[in-house]
Amino acid sequence: MTGKFLAIEGIDGAGKTTVAGHIQRFLVDQGIEAVLTREPTRGPIGDVIRRSLGDLELHPYQRALLFAADRYGHLKDVIAPALEAGKWVVTDRYLYSSLAYQGAEGVDMAFLRFINGFAPDPDIVLYLDVLPDIGVSRLQKRDRFEDSAFLRTVRATFAEILPRHALHIDAAQPLKEVLAVATGHVKRSIEGGR
């Protein structure tokens, strides 16, 4: 079996981290080698990005460039080698989060697509859709982007930029149902569908 690249997207509080971990464990249980990763990464550029979400003030275009640089390293060092080795890669956030969040900050979409032009489209995109008020209510610790008004803009931007093959999941459902729907999509992909 060749590797597949699966990205899980959605606003803050949608449940991406929980679903990503569940999918990776499901794949391993099926006898499929699977790497669980995330963006921003835990590398040096990812650390600067996390600081910029808190106490480090950066212009939105600076942050967009940092996300693109972090993604380049992520693809080169983690994603591409795993896929080449025949493993599945499950990432908690990817390119579409950059387009949605930095786009909502006012960064030009053509600029965002240009600086991320190296980033391949995942085989599977699971988009966890939830109303911003629900997402915010689930968060234990907030950063500067985690307020309902901003997340409404992010959610609207996601609706415009997600690829046609993105699978939308109602993330307001009970977690058990969200996980079942996500797992069902992945099962179908294993069996040869997309």
Question: Short description, anyone?
Answer:
With about 190 residues, the protein is of the alpha/beta class.
CATH superfamily: P-loop containing nucleotide triphosphate hydrolases
User: How would you sum up the major sheet?
Assistant: 5 strands, parallel
Strand line-up across the major sheet: 2-3-1-4-5
Q: What would you say the CATH architecture is?
A: 3-Layer(aba) Sandwich
Query: Any idea what the radius of gyration is?
Result: 16 Å
Helix count?
8
Rounded to the nearest angstrom, the distance between the terminal CA atoms is 15 Å
Tell me the helix content. Answer: 40-55%
In total, the number of domains comes to: 1
On the 0 to 100 scale, the average pLDDT is 92
Protein described:
This protein is an alpha/beta fold. It has one domain (5-190): P-loop containing nucleotide triphosphate hydrolases (Rossmann fold). It has 8 helices and 5 strands; from the N terminus they run βαβααβααβααβα. The protein has helices spanning 16-29, 44-52, 60-84, 95-104, 109-115, 132-138, 148-161, 175-190, and strands at residues 5-10, 34-38, 88-92, 124-129, 167-170.
Structural features:
194 residues; alpha/beta; Rossmann fold; 53% helix
